[in-house]
Amino acid sequence: MKRADVERYIGEIEFLFAQAMKRIWVREHHELRELEVTLPQFAALMAISFKDGCMMRELAEELSLALGTVTGIIDRLVRAGLVKRYRDEKDRRIVRVRLTQVGEELVRNIKEMRRNHYISIFEKMDEEDVRALVESLRKFLLVVVGE
């Protein structure tokens, strides 16, 4: 697509992305608040859930946060019994974090809440529109990743 053509859509795309994400995050924030989990804690829990134990440095990079900030988040999650710290067996200097059983259950509940939220949104759309949205987002992501 030519730059001039792209420029016609930029404002609307930015607005639509921002509005959609804002409305999704507002609902998720409300649901997380009921579970006594903050958005940064939620992001950390989700990132940890995709790995079987992750290093603090990796988690900081994944979340694009300073290591000290992530340490504070993890401290609170440890106190809440949602994650545990442990030393790497091969290199005792490395500290890793892993979800506890309670943390795993909470993540499952959060994922289910999110899934139900998305279902309630997409049930209001035609299947063809949802399929087109998925395909467009897939193409968009391939371009973004390829940059």
Give the tags.
single chain; 147 residues; mainly alpha; Arc Repressor Mutant, subunit A; 2 domains; 3-stranded antiparallel β-sheet; 3 strands; globular
The CATH topology of the largest domain is given as Arc Repressor Mutant, subunit A
> Which shape, going by the Cα principal axes?
globular
- Sequence stretches where pLDDT stays below 50 over 5 or more residues: none
Query: How many domains in all?
Result: 2
What is the rounded Rg?
19 Å
Write the layout of secondary structure elements.
Layout: H1 3-34, H2 39-49, E1 54-55, H3 56-63, H4 67-79, E2 83-87, E3 95-99, H5 101-122, H6 127-146
Antiparallel strand pairs: 1-3, 2-3
Helix pairs in contact: 3-4
Report on this model:
A three-stranded antiparallel beta sheet has the order 1-3-2. Helix 3 (56-63) crosses helix 4. It is mainly alpha-helical and 147 residues long. It is 72% helix and 8% strand. The mean pLDDT is 92. It has two domains: 1-34; 35-146, Winged helix-like DNA-binding domain superfamily/Winged helix DNA-binding domain (Arc Repressor Mutant, subunit A). The longest helix is centred in the first third of the chain and has 32 residues, at 3-34. It has six helices and three strands, in the order H-H-E-H-H-E-E-H-H.
Quickly describe the structure.
This protein has 147 residues and is mainly alpha-helical.
